[in-house]
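Continuing the series of single-chain predictions for the mutant panel. This is the parent chain; the variants come on the following pages.
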Amino acid sequence: MVAVFGVGVWASDVYRRRTGREDPGEVAIDEVVIDEAAGQGLVLTSLLWSLLS
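Parent structure:
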């Protein structure tokens, strides 16, 4: 997750500089990282639940 965030920040900066736009709407790395974190949390919770039952 940290690697995805790091690469996303770098790629977002490159895209921003090339397009000259300050906050391009098509850059959504924060949403990708949040979805990944939520998915991992769901998997870990279900794994813990199955181990405890």
